[in-house]
Write a structure and sequence with these properties.
Layout lengths: L1 E6 L4 H4 L2 H10 L2 E6 L7 H10 L3 E5 L13 H8 L4 E10 L8 H17 L3 E6 L2 H10 L7 E3 L6 H9 L3 E4 L9 H9 L5 E3 L21 H12 L3 H15 L8
Parallel strand pairs: 1-2, 2-3, 3-4, 4-5, 5-6, 6-7, 7-8
């Protein structure tokens, strides 16, 4: 069984095909997925997916790109995380690509999410773009390693992966690792310890080769696993086993489907 550790099935272009997406997952051996929250206004849809399907789970959080949305405080995040189908805090982190002025509100929001993860004992799902130095700095300052988590859709250099690994975090690769020009990322995928490796789609974005340019979906996480198996010269079954075991070790509130 493969697991898609990060997808956005509540987005309109996916939730409208909910039953078909679940059927495609089953047909491709993808037995579970984590549906990621990006703003509190839409969190009920994310949680609803996890409540309807035993092989889906939810996170709760506000994406660093989202400025004009309900701002989460610590008490609110803890309240919403207190649900058996919510297994993670995030998507959180820093993004200076879209927020080029590196706003302090974004850093403070990240700190709040880290504190919520430590308080609830639920791991973090971290996004970082053009902000790796500050992301790692805040993770250290807020003792994010106490909660643990994953650097999702990893695209940074090895030194950033190494810093996250030292804090006890996992590294997740998306369809980007299948792209021909992702040479540096492919090297990182070779080096991440097998027991800290996760795979994801980030659906509906970043469809892997051979579906690049199309609307992504969890069933295609298999292509990410295939590329990592090729890079590491391992059987696909070894990547399947490791990444699935890693998922349930990290997201320990999620019960492995029978």
């Amino acid at each position: 069984m493969f697991v898609d550790s990060h997808c956005h099935l509540d987005f309109p272009d996916l939730i409208s095909r909910e039953d078909a997406l679940l059927a495609n997952m089953a047909a491709n051996g993808v037995g579970a997925a984590l549906c990621i929250s990006v703003k509190l206004e839409d969190f009920p849809r994310v949680r609803g997916l996890a409540e309807r399907h035993a092989n889906l789970w939810a996170s709760v959080g506000v994406h660093p790109d989202n400025a004009d949305v309900e701002e989460p405080d610590l008490a609110r995040l803890i309240e919403l995380a207190d649900h058996p189908r919510v297994v993670a805090i995030g998507e959180t982190g820093l993004d200076y690509y879209w927020q080029k002025d590196a706003p302090e509100w974004q850093r403070e929001r990240f700190r709040v999410h880290i504190r919520a993860a430590r308080e609830t004992g639920k791991p973090l799902v971290i996004h970082t773009r053009s902000a790796a130095e500050d992301t790692v700095r805040l993770m250290r300052e807020e003792n994010a390693g106490e909660a643990g988590g994953v650097m999702h859709c990893f695209t940074e250099r090895w030194e950033v992966a190494e810093a996250a690994l030292e804090l006890g975090f996992y590294i997740s690769f998306s369809g980007i690792v299948t792209f021909r020009n992702a040479k540096e990322l492919k090297e990182v995928a070779r080096r991440v310890p097998l027991d800290r490796l996760l795979i994801e789609t980030d659906s509906p974005y970043l469809a892997p080769v051979p579906h690049r340019g199309r609307t992504n979906e969890p069933a295609w996480v298999v292509h990410v696993a295939e590329e990592i198996a090729r890079l590491r010269e391992l059987p696909l079954a070894a990547i399947e086993q490791a990444t699935t075991d890693n998922f349930f070790r990290l997201f320990h509130h999620a019960q492995r489907p029978a």
